[in-house]
Design goal:
This protein is of the alpha/beta class. It has one domain: 2-enoyl-CoA Hydratase, Chain A, domain 1 (Alpha-Beta Complex). It has 10 helices and 9 strands. The protein starts with 5 loop residues before the first strand and ends in a 26-residue tail after the last helix.
């Protein structure tokens, strides 16, 4: 029997925990995994005994992004194959559903949270991460545009541009400093931190939690959050038409995805940005840590 791609359990009264369960793929978001995730989210949202949902990842990472490999017998196209905006519109409709759910959702992020993984994490109501987690959108280097654009609401225009225009990454501690995450804690304290937050939320009437979540999200909508997501899907379609995107698709077809990704990222060295202090780099593009 095939093991579920999303594991559900109830570690505390009022708390439903969903674990992305593709550790060998760094929890890459395949179409099948996303279907199971939303099935479990809907089930939790309709359960009167569930007040809060936690989403985490099994293995070394939260999620390394959307799975670019095809799935057998799957009618949905791969992200690198669509250039008409369908893929982005399809994704954003799903992420909107998370915003509209009554139940508060906490992202528990460790390891890599890249590309599509940041879509999932930033559309949760709160994001708590490990200090050494890594956040970034490497596809901005050659393949497309972030379709959800919640980065803008979390970190403002300058840090959004600094990170999305280069595909560079920041640590969990830096993500919390610029507002991408609610907070970061040492990796060995992450589970306890999220558990404590979930327990406190579960002390409140679930209908009151829903009302407070809704009014804040309505505020985001008044600031243009939902409209921005829809516009981003159109811009992402443009991004899939640029020469570098066509080059990535050729490289992936001729040399495989792993090699295409290596060729894309190699000129960027270690791919890290630095929030505090100068970005001094060695000849290979890697940051030089201060003495």
């Amino acid at each position: 029997m095939t093991e579920p791609l999303v594991l559900a359990d109830d570690p505390r009264p009022g708390v439903r925990r969903l674990t992305l369960n593709r550790p060998d793929k760094r929890n890459a978001l395949s179409n099948s995994l996303r279907r199971q995730l939303f099935d479990e989210l809907r089930r939790a949202d309709q359960d009167r005994d569930v007040s809060v949902v936690v989403i985490r990842g099994a293995g070394p990472s939260f999620s390394a992004g959307y799975d670019l490999a095809p799935e057998p017998n799957d009618p949905l196209p791969r992200p690198i194959a669509t250039r008409d905006g369908f893929w982005s519109r399809h994704l954003v409709e799903g992420w909107f559903e998370m915003m509209d759910m009554s139940t508060p959702i906490i992202a528990q992020v460790h390891g890599y949270c890249l590309a599509g993984g940041t879509d999932l994490a930033t559309l949760c109501d709160m994001l708590v991460c490990a200090d050494d987690a890594r956040f970034g959108f490497p596809p901005g280097r050659d393949l497309g545009v972030l379709p959800t654009q919640m980065w803008l609401h979390h970190v403002g225009p300058q840090w959004s541009k600094r990170l999305l225009l280069t595909g560079d990454t920041v640590s969990g501690a830096e993500a919390a400093q610029i507002g991408l995450a609610l907070k970061s804690v040492p990796a060995d304290e992450l589970a306890a931190e999220v558990d404590g937050l979930a327990r406190r939320l579960a002390l409140v009437d679930r209908e009151l939690l829903a009302a407070n979540k809704r009014v804040i999200n309505l505020g985001l909508e008044l600031m243009g959050a939902r409209t921005m997501q829809r516009l981003a899907t159109e811009i992402d379609a443009r991004g899939h038409l640029v020469d570098s995107a066509a080059g990535f698709r050729r490289n992936a077809a001729e040399h495989g995805l792993r090699e295409a990704l290596r060729r894309r990222d190699a000129p960027f060295g270690d791919g890290r940005a630095r929030v505090n202090g100068p970005e001094r780099r060695d000849d290979h593009g890697a940051l030089i840590d201060p003495d």
